[in-house]
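Batch manifest, entry 17 of 40.
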Amino acid sequence: MKLVSIDYIPGAEIEVLELVKGTVVQSKHIGKDFMAGMKTLVGGEIKGYTEMLNEARQIAVKRMVDEAKLLNADAVIGVRFSSSQIMTGAAEVVAYGTAVKIIK
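Output type: structure tokens
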């Protein structure tokens, strides 16, 4: 499945199918959350949260691609990500775009 952030596929004629998305709400266990809180005292990257968000983006993209495959799409264009904090230590990540069929 081809995924692009632009709104077209260079050199291809496409048929727009529909909006597809994948969502996940991810959190870290209490131990990692506690250590992240301690890290805020000294500054620097909070690697546990970086890992959590990277994993959440991967899951969201997989779910978006799975939805596109159900439509027999060849690609998803205009891919975007959105995230928000649901509660302390938990974030929602959404991947979305437009599923398309490549005609030629």
